[in-house]
Automatic annotation (TrEMBL):
One of its GO terms (molecular function) is glycerol kinase activity. This is Rhamnulokinase. The keyword Zinc does not apply. It comes from the Bacteria. Keywords: ATP-binding, Disulfide bond, Kinase, Nucleotide-binding, Rhamnose metabolism, Transferase. SUPFAM superfamilies: Actin-like ATPase domain (SSF53067). Residues 256-447 form the Carbohydrate kinase FGGY C-terminal domain. Pfam families: FGGY_C (PF02782), FGGY_N (PF00370). Gene3D superfamilies: 3.30.420.40. It comes from Rubrobacter tropicus. One of its GO terms (biological process) is glycerol metabolic process. Belongs to the FGGY kinase family. Residues 8-246 form the Carbohydrate kinase FGGY N-terminal domain. The keyword Disulfide bond applies.
Amino acid sequence: MAAETAFLAVDLGAESGRVVLGRFSGGRMALEEVHRFPNVPVRLPDGLHWDVLWIVEEVKNGIARAANDGERIESLGVDSWGVDFGLLDRDGCLIANPYHYRDPRTEGMEERAFDRMPREEIYETTGVQFMPINTLYQLLAMEGSPLLQAAQTLLLIPDLIGYWLTGERACEFTAASTTQLCDARSGGWARDLLEKMRLPGHIFGEIVPPGTQLGPLLPAVAEETGAKGGLPVTSVASHDTASAVVAVPAENENFAYISSGTWSLVGVELPKPAIAPGGMHANFTNEGGFGGTTRFLKNVMGLWLLQECRRTWAREGREYSYEELARLAQAAPGGGPLLDPDHPSFLPPGDMPGRIRRFCRETRQSPPGEPGEVARCVLESLALKYRWSLERAEEITGRRAEVVHVVGGGVRNTLLCQLTADATRRPVRAGPVEATALGNLMVQAHARGYLGSLEEIRAAVRRSPVELHDYEPMGSADEWDGAYERLRGVMDAAAHLDAEGASF
């Protein structure tokens, strides 16, 4: 039997972070979660921030737990969400706590960007969808700020954590590709765009590919965590969706994926970017993937809608688990009101059930009442928006998806998985749940020479002890086609109201 090798994945999500130990043996990876912690943003008078000092402390606690088990760990990798960043001064000190991408300071920044560079030219250069959360608009919102003026280095969140662990500054490619500041074709920073946006070009450092060895833990970190022997840190596919797509257990290229969690990333994998007017009009993005691939995808708002509903109901004294909401949604009648999950009114934190009811009233639908009805409305709307996104991806790329792979925490919502099969009229293969951590670990195994290619990685994923569940389309195709047309009508009505300046 092949010797067992251990790797450690730090996987940071918008709701929680986790440190996962992976034991690789016999061409398969077994996972053990050694530490999990909440990731709670902090609202200050100047806006919404991430508590990155808490995050890095909890990361070190996770490393310590793994090290204290006596496991010999061959390497460590960090992944997280994209677009957000920390700024370092000339001494390498953090200037201020990073802003949260849901902070409203980016309102109006797209218009500022288009005044300096036409929308079409931005997309032609970067291939990235237009969203107010993008790093480009966050930086434009800081124009004239003494914080930006004092900055010497910009590091995205996974790179920032990696810097604090190793002392090495690097910008990993898959994370950098989410910023709308990279040249989609060359993979480097879009220097002409940076100049036209009047952004300080010197803060953007070297972009490195996934699998790059950063270096060992700093001696002080190694001593603090008990991780002896110079634990190496690998710059993995550090955007969490990139790691999740690595762990899609696909057997050929004819698949679509949905990385389902706080966000739902719906797309296909391509050998090179697909930059065309159709992609810009449908607001698809071309982001970097592992092994020279491109993630051609659409950001759909995802389970954020239910997460924020839960928070609102909890403040009202009504606590619901995700499992309870799924059961209530299952019991609620189908074919009710629908919403466009990507409407701008649903992006910020706040009273999500109230916003959903208001959206339905504005689009001339009877609003949902009880939590189960709200949850059913959200889940059916997500499944139908997945269909819209999948059909647009196929139209633009000419690639037909024979199966939809759903990975990530949303796999646990079996109702959503079944609704996705029903709405898309495609078979759905759901799993693995911990796809991001698994992809992180697999890239480390590749970097250390245990796996030779993306195809080998995916074969190892299929061999690994992960749960996979298959869902076949159920229900009447005519009924789902009718629901899909209703969704398209709702999207058109909302867009018309937005153009007229209506407030949701």
